[in-house]
């Protein structure tokens, strides 16, 4: 089974089909979250031959994601929206004062603190957890509650 890479459009190969029932049981057991309402089927885990991006899709090719209540539960976990992540240090080396930054699933926008001042002004975070959004807003950072597909189709400003 193959699909197009969501980042570069390259050929991506199925690595693994992940059972919905296993994921459902793990979320129930560990976080008392029922994922049935937004997870229609098993997940498909792909790897891109071109850029090595790894990503999940639903059976119909759409992208899995939770809802506001789901991400609010995850926001309560210290490690989920951590203020420090090793990838923040790495990614910031690619960003300069004039950069525009779009962070998908930004949580409370901890990464924004790693940006040079110019880039902070051009930062946009997308997030569904209203608790995380409030935490970011208390620091003066504006977050949009939108799917990346909808944000892109709006031209980046209409939402
Ligand atoms: Zn790719």
- What is the CATH superfamily classification of the largest domain? Vaccinia Virus protein VP39
Overall 3D form: globular
How many helical stretches?
6
Which strand-content bin applies to the residues? 15-25%
CATH architectural grouping of the largest domain: 3-Layer(aba) Sandwich
How many structurally independent domains?
A: 2
Q: What's the overall average pLDDT, rounded?
A: 90
Q: Sheet with the most strands?
A: 4 strands, antiparallel
Short characterization:
This protein has 159 residues and is α/β, with parallel strands linked by helices.
Would you give an account of this structure?
By secondary structure, this protein is of the alpha/beta class. It is 28% helix and 19% strand. The radius of gyration is 17 Å and the shape is globular. The structure holds zinc ion. Zinc ion (ZN) binds next to loops.
Show the helix and strand layout:
Layout: E1 2-4, E2 11-18, H1 20-31, E3 43-48, E4 54-57, H2 68-75, H3 86-91, E5 101-104, H4 117-121, E6 123-126, H5 130-137, E7 143-144, H6 148-153
Parallel strand pairs: 5-6, 6-7
Antiparallel strand pairs: 1-2, 2-3, 3-4
The chain binds zinc ion.
Zinc ion binds at residues 5, 7-8, 10, 48, 50-51, 53.
Quickly list its features.
28% helix; globular; four-stranded antiparallel β-sheet; alpha/beta; single chain; binds zinc ion; 159 residues; three-stranded parallel β-sheet; 2 domains; Rossmann fold; 6 helices
């Amino acid at each position: 089974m193959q699909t197009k890479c969501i980042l570069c459009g390259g050929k991506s190969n199925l690595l693994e089909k992940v059972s919905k029932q296993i994921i459902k049981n793990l979320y129930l057991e560990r976080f008392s979250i029922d994922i049935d309402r937004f997870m229609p089927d098993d997940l498909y885990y792909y790897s891109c031959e071109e850029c090595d991006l790894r990503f999940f899709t639903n059976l119909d090719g759409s992208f899995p994601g939770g809802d506001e209540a789901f991400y609010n539960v995850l926001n309560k976990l210290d490690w989920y929206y951590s203020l420090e992540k090793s990838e923040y240090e790495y990614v910031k080396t690619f960003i300069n004062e004039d950069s525009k930054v779009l962070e998908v699933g930004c949580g409370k926008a901890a990464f924004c603190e790693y940006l040079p001042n110019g880039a902070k002004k051009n930062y946009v975070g997308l997030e569904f957890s209203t608790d995380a959004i409030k935490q970011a807003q208390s620091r003066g950072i504006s977050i949009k509650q939108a799917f990346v597909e909808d944000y892109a189709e709006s031209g980046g400003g209409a939402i």
